[in-house]
Automatic annotation (TrEMBL):
Belongs to the cation transport ATPase (P-type) (TC 3.A.3) family. Type IIA subfamily. Residues 11-85 form the Cation-transporting P-type ATPase N-terminal domain. The keyword Aminoacyl-tRNA synthetase does not apply. It is found in: Cell membrane. GO terms for cellular component: plasma membrane. This is Cation-transporting ATPase. It is a multi-pass membrane protein. It holds the Pfam family Cation_ATPase_N. Coiled coil: none annotated. The chain crosses the membrane at residues 68-84, 252-270, 282-307, 702-727, 733-751, 771-794, 810-830, 842-863, 875-894. It catalyses: ATP + H2O = ADP + phosphate + H(+).
């Protein structure tokens, strides 16, 4: 078959479905055949959006110069050149250039890290090929493919609909309109604009309700969204609240420092000092006091945090989440699949006349049904049991497949478990198909809490089968079935009591019912109420995840409350919550279980208080999740909330950290989330919080490390000007120190492993500034010692016959060596460098060695001596420098020790 003409040119919305099928040479029911799909994939390429145009290399490098500090340096470079100080001027421009290159490389690496995360979250599409439905990666779709979409999906390509049922699509990605629009399959006039093309669904839009099937008419760059991507270019933003705050801070700082420098210059002139020297001093002050390495360090630390989280299976979709994670105070987690395995096995069946135990585990059809006295239970002698199994398996969309010894499931685990137990009793799909054909369905939804199907029996009668939450089913049923197949009035208290007993064991309980038979029966939600017969209950085990219990306890010791939010029943939820430690007598939250009904009945003024105290929320509807998040936020909490369904999207957006399930979640939920868990596991959220705290620690450590250099150097200059003496360090030397130490030493802190106690301290207050009072004290201590040390050595060397270049070289080496020593102290806020060990971050060793080589170069290489006006030093000077560094380290160690003692008291 020849591949069809390029598809994007045809106005598919203006054609009938049949015409589209003909044009694209496909089949409306069987789809493409596999060979043709392969051929088209070769011809049309992968269905991926084009990479955004992005800024070119030159623009990106030029962007590095767009910082207030760089302006200051550029002006300084030009003025220095005008004054005839060509070497100094060249050094300043050299530094600016190196700064731009380093900034560019870091920015590119950070962006690459974020880009690669996208590939970690796959989107899949349901496609019909060779007449068989299958799941493929969205990028494998080709024009002509027959694709099925349903609520929760992200539309994988531009598709002309052939069939649809109550399909609604959120097209905000394309049109900006956030209200979801209904779809149909009528032919539209050719000039219809994209937003009104009701018979099309477009790539990247989100299905919010209903189902549909249609033919792919455009993929990748040819889609409407592809066009937009190419034109606009979706830039990856590296900005977070913190980087914005720091950018603002550095602007204010620059202006302040410039003012101070101008004042210095004016004072110098008034004192009739040499204009060139005074100007040099003013520039020295400006370049000394500005922390050049800060923006780069923040970006790189965040980027490293993001990739560490990705390694632990938490994919960050929005960068600010990295910061927020560290201050999370409450995690609201789903039960099924997040705290539990979502691996269901039916363990017990209750019918009006008999309790049945089921043996076996997992989805393997290995096991038997036993009565309470250990005899095999028979579906021949107990009609209620037979119907409970039969209806559970027939009112069901899941499938079991067998590959050798392994059983796999397709679809919902709850439903798969019902297929397995039916098969254990001998009711195979083949035997069921003989007696029933499904002719209608009311699908399961979390709001409805049941699923109903209409079947035509072999005697041509219609029969309704229902399964769902027990509370909901006792409303639908007015009678219950006995072992002999007869019906009597339902004994609701007995049913609920049985269900509670099962739930208390942590089992998930579903009730099963059969409806009126006849020809025809009315198959609507209303007609079902009160007309059904309850046949029995199936109770299934969904084991808690192995890592959940320890992750919950880590959260508790980190001062983070964990709340379980589930659509399941209060009894089951409480039992599982107790098993994983969410409900714990010792934490004083025992008994705090609220149901959706309790929440609805709470007066609004009591709502936030009650929500804060409870730790299990059962039978909660997705709408109530949104209220829960808002209430917790009202109480000042930073909330992480998990979700997987379409209706969870508003709550995910409202939460400070919306967490979607990568494996089982819908595309709509992933789209609304800040973070996606590729393994759906609760422990992964805890791991991400841990990494988030680590990121913040490392940022703080960098700042605590870098500021003393800036403050110290600034103070040295100000003191020199005030005393009217010559500068102990020159502007170019200051630039050297700032640039080399920031890159070789400071950036290595971004690779610091997390401290052992990150998860034993309380969460950081999001409003709290980066620097606590204790850290400010530390910074001032080190700054003062640095100034004193550098100044003392400078004067001492001069007094002992050294030349000015020699004394200055000694002073700059004081800064470099003290900063190298201090780097090790900054690795922990509380512990000494000895306690952490010197080799736990190899990058630090590499950095210190590099800095040492650079310092030897600037001290001993003749060319460097000329450029930077330095001079070689003898061993005695180095010993004095080392002595100063040791004094500073001992002082910082003593300060940590004293503070620790004071806190312990
Ligand atoms: P979580 O919110 O923790 O994921 P959940 O999976 O129990 O919990 P829902 O999927 O909203 O939440 O299910 C709510 C209730 O509906 C269940 O407790 C169960 O009784 C019933 N139920 C679940 N799945 C089905 C299904 N496929 N068919 C019929 N009823 C179901």
């Amino acid at each position: 078959m020849a591949a069809p003409a390029p598809v994007a040119m045809s106005a598919h919305h203006g054609m009938s479905g049949h015409e589209v099928v003909l044009l694209l040479e496909t089949d409306p029911h069987r789809g493409l055949n596999g060979d043709e799909a392969t051929e088209r994939a070769r011809r049309f390429g992968l269905n991926v959006l084009p990479q955004p145009a992005g800024a070119g290399l030159l623009v990106r490098i030029l962007r590095q110069f767009h910082h207030p500090l760089i302006y200051v340096l550029l002006v300084a470079g030009v003025v220095t050149a005008l004054l005839g100080e060509y070497v100094d001027s060249a050094v300043i421009f050299g530094v600016v250039f190196v700064n731009a290159v380093v900034g560019y490389i870091q920015e590119s690496r950070a962006e690459a890290a974020l880009q690669s995360l996208r590939a970690m979250v796959h989107t899949v599409a349901r496609v019909v090929r060779d007449g068989r439905e299958r799941t493929v990666e969205s990028e494998q779709l080709v024009p002509g493919d027959l694709v099925l979409v349903e609520a929760g999906d992200k539309v994988p390509a531009d598709i002309r609909l052939l069939r649809q049922t109550e399909l609604r699509v959120d097209e905000s990605a394309l049109t900006g309109e956030s209200v979801s629009v209904p779809k149909d399959d009528v032919v539209l006039p050719d000039p219809t604009v994209v937003a009104d093309r009701r018979n099309m669904v477009h790539s990247s839009t989100l299905v919010t309700a209903g189902t549909g099937a249609g033919i792919v008419v455009a993929t990748g760059a040819e889609t409407e969204i592809g066009e937009i991507h190419r034109l606009v270019g979706a830039a990856t933003t590296l900005a977070t609240p913190l980087t914005a705050k720091l950018a603002q801070f550095s602007k204010v700082l620059t202006v302040g420092i410039l003012g101070l420098a101008a004042l210095t210059f004016a004072i110098g002139l008034l004192r009739r000092q040499d204009a060139v020297e005074t100007f040099t001093a003013a520039i020295a002050l400006a370049v000394a006091a500005i922390p050049e390495g800060l923006p780069a360090a923040v970006t790189i630390t965040l980027a490293i945090g993001v990739s560490r989280m990705a390694k632990r299976r938490a994919v960050i979709r929005r960068l600010p989440a990295v910061e927020t994670l560290g201050s999370t105070t409450v995690i609201c987690a789903d039960k099924t699949g997040t705290l539990t395995e979502n691996q269901m096995t039916v363990r017990e069946i209750w019918t009006a006349d008999e309790w049945v135990q089921v043996t076996g585990s997992g989805y393997a059809v290995d096991g038997v049904l036993l009565t309470h006295d250990g005899r095999p239970a028979s579906i021949e002698t107990n009609a209620a049991l037979r119907w409970t199994l039969l209806a559970g398996a027939a009112c069901n969309d899941a499938a079991l497949t067998r590959a050798g010894e392994r059983w796999d499931i397709v679809g919902d685990p709850t439903e798969a478990a019902m297929l397995v137990v039916a098969a254990k009793a001998g009711l195979t799909p083949e035997s069921r198909a003989e007696s029933f054909t499904r002719v209608g369905a009311i699908p399961f939804s979390s709001e409805r809490q049941y699923m109903a199907t209409l079947h035509r029996s072999d005697r041509d009668d219609d029969v309704v089968l229902v399964k769902g939450a027990v509370e909901r089913m006792v409303e639908l049923c007015s009678t219950q079935m006995c072992a002999d197949g007869s019906c009597r009035s339902i004994d609701r208290p007995a049913v609920l009591e049985a269900a509670e007993g099962l739930a208390a064991k942590g089992l998930r309980v579903l009730a099963i019912g059969v409806g009126p038979s006849g020809d025809p029966v009315e198959f609507t939600e209303n007609a079902l109420v009160g007309s059904m017969t309850l046949t029995g209950l199936q109770a299934m085990l969904d084991p808690p995840r192995a890592a959940a219990t320890s992750a919950v306890s880590v959260c508790h010791s980190a001062g983070i409350a964990v709340k379980m939010i589930t659509g399941d029943n209060a009894g089951t939820a409480s039992a599982i919550a107790a098993a994983v430690g969410v409900l714990d007598d010792r934490t004083g939250t025992h008994g705090m279980v609220l149901t959706g009904a309790d929440l609805a009945a709470l007066p609004s003024e009591e709502f936030p208080e009650a929500v804060e105290r409870a730790s299990v929320f059962a039978r909660v509807s997705p709408e109530q999740k949104l209220r829960l998040v808002e209430a917790l936020q009202d109480k000042g909490h930073v909330v992480a909330m998990t979700g997987d369904g379409v209706n969870d999207a508003p709550a995910l957006r409202q939460a400070n950290i919306g967490v979607a399930m990568g494996a089982s979640g819908t595309e709509v939920a992933k789209d609304a989330a800040d973070m996606v868990l590729t393994d759906d596991d609760f422990a992964t959220i805890e791991a991400a919080v841990e990494e988030g705290r680590g990121v913040f620690d490392n940022l703080t450590k960098f700042i605590t490390w870098t500021l003393p250099t800036n403050i110290g150097q600034g103070l040295v200059i100000v003191t020199a000007i005030a005393l009217g003496t010559s500068l102990p360090i020159l502007p170019t030397q200051i630039l050297w120190i700032n640039m080399t130490t920031a890159v070789a030493l400071g950036l290595m802190l971004a690779f610091e492993p997390k401290e052992a106690d990150v998860m034993t301290r309380p969460p950081r207050d999001p409003g709290q500034s980066l620097l606590t009072r204790a850290l400010v004290g530390r910074i001032l201590l080190v700054s003062t010692l640095l100034v004193a040390g550098a100044w003392w050595l400078f004067e001492w060397e001069l007094a002992n016959g050294a030349t000015l270049p020699e004394a200055r070289t000694a002073a700059i080496n004081v800064f470099a060596v003290v900063q190298s020593f201090y780097l090790f102290s900054c690795r922990s806020f509380t512990h000494s460098a000895w306690r952490i060990g010197f080799f736990t971050n190899h990058w630090l060793i590499v950095g210190v060695a590099t800095q040492a080589i650079l310092q030897l170069a600037i001290t001993y290489l003749p060319a460097m001596n000329t450029v930077f006006q330095t001079a070689p030093l003898d061993v005695g000077v180095w010993l004095r420098i080392l002595a100063i560094a040791v004094v500073v380290s001992v002082a910082v160690g003593a300060e940590k020790w004293l503070r620790a003692r004071r806190t312990a008291q």
